[in-house]
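> example.struct
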């Protein structure tokens, strides 16, 4: 009995000791400087730290591997060598192209012009200092010149457009023109009743590249007021144009409002018939880009050739182009033919479908480039590199709602471009293997 109670005392003593230790551990405070936490809190912190650290570094190796190999960062890129040393080296040697940033703009749009300039300077031009050229159908005022000069990292130049390049030609018949303005207004067609908008579209279609102030340049980058560039440019797009022998570059492609161009395609087809001795290849893949009506989202659908315009065009408020393409006699002959029909005034033809159709008919497939890596917003739509890795690497900031994202919406022509344009390399590689 005595032995049992002694053993029991021993057990009880141990139990007492253990619970004392447990209790004291629970309330032991770890203090660093003036900050004390309990052991329990410490353990919890440690657990959270480990979990968040694991997540933070989960993809480090993958990212590092991508960085070491330069691009191909994601399957959404066409180019193997963007971001690799080749481009960085050229940037360091400050090798500039013979190129210009070009803005057609009105004096009252100053604040919007400055917004676009600030964005493009921050994201691209502060590293290159390309010249800016501003065009206007009336003289720029002193405030406009002062503010834009201060905003630019490169030289700024200003030119007045001759009225012969801007105004409605005499041979446009007033009564038909006025009738068209009224009709389009009744139909609520965007800019349908605007005379100046028609001048602007015709100027951008056939005259911008003939302005004397641009004679010295080979490439232009069209910038509009009130646009934004969401990401750092991972390369100098002018350099890409020259090195890869590109003549026309775009970021967004979508369908045009049919009511603004009722007879544009008929006129284009007439031109093609009349010029069948020229090098327009209507059996090319590129021609399919603007005539394929198949639902592109069905990957295996066979394309039946059509001769009907599907309204796909490159959105020309952003464009990077080779001025020599527009200066060519082929382009000018094409423009003159369209212009002579009066469609810029009797209808409301935009410069976007005109540039796009010309590029498709007169250029080779591999002379058009989709700048997939550039983040860009012109209301109401934006585009941004698809891969999150790219967005991080290029320091993208995009505060827009998903609805404004054009590339995967029903009115985008990007998937058609992938299919019939230069095509995503990875798609071809996949299909071939
Ligand atoms: N100088 C001048 N520029 C114009 C005129 N109309 C439009 N623009 C410019 O042409 C471009 C397209 O016009 P915008 O109003 O942005 O049309 P949207 O982009 O089609 O909605 C912009 O760069 C405008 O600043 C005009 O009457 N005079
Ligand atoms: Mg605009």
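> example.seq
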């Amino acid at each position: 009995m005595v032995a049992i109670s002694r053993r029991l005392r021993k057990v009880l003593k141990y139990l007492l000791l253990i619970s004392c230790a447990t209790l004291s551990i629970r309330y032991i405070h770890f203090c660093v400087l003036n900050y004390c936490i309990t052991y329990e809190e410490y353990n919890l912190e440690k657990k959270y730290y480990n979990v968040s650290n694991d997540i933070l570094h989960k993809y480090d190796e993958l990212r590092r591997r991508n960085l070491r190999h330069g691009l191909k960062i994601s399957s959404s890129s066409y180019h193997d060598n963007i971001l690799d040393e080749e481009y960085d080296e050229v940037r360091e040697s400050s090798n500039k192209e013979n190129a210009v940033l070009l803005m057609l703009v009105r004096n009252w749009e100053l604040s919007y012009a400055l917004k676009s300039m600030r964005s493009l300077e921050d994201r691209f031009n502060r590293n290159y200092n390309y010249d800016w050229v501003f065009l206007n159908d009336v003289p720029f005022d002193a405030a406009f010149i002062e503010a834009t000069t201060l905003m630019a990292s490169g030289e700024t130049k200003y030119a007045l457009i001759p009225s012969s390049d801007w105004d409605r030609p005499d041979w446009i018949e007033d009564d038909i023109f006025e009738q068209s303005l009224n009709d389009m207004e009744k139909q609520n067609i965007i800019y349908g009743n605007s005379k100046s908008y028609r001048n602007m579209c015709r100027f951008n279609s056939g005259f911008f590249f003939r302005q004397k102030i641009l004679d010295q340049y080979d490439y232009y980058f069209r910038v509009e007021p009130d646009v934004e560039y969401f990401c750092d440019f991972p390369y100098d797009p002018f350099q890409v144009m020259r090195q890869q022998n590109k003549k026309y570059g775009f970021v967004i492609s979508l369908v045009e409002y049919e009511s603004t161009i009722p007879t544009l395609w008929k006129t284009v087809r007439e031109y093609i018939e009349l010029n069948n001795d020229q090098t327009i290849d209507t059996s090319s893949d590129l021609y399919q880009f603007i005539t394929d009506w198949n639902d592109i989202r069905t990957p295996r659908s066979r394309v039946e050739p059509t001769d009907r315009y599907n309204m796909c065009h490159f959105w020309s408020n952003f464009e990077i182009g080779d001025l020599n393409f527009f200066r060519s006699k082929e382009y000018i002959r094409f423009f003159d033919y369209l212009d002579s029909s009066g469609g810029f005034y009797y209808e409301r033809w935009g410069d976007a479908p005109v540039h796009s159709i010309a590029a498709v008919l007169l250029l080779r497939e591999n002379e058009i480039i989709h700048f997939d890596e550039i983040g860009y917003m012109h209301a109401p739509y934006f585009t941004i590199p698809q891969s999150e890795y790219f967005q991080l690497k290029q320091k993208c900031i995009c505060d827009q709602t998903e609805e404004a994202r054009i590339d995967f919406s029903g009115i985008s022509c990007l998937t058609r471009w992938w299919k019939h344009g230069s095509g995503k390399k990875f798609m071809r590689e996949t299909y071939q293997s």
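> remarks
The radius of gyration is 31 Å.
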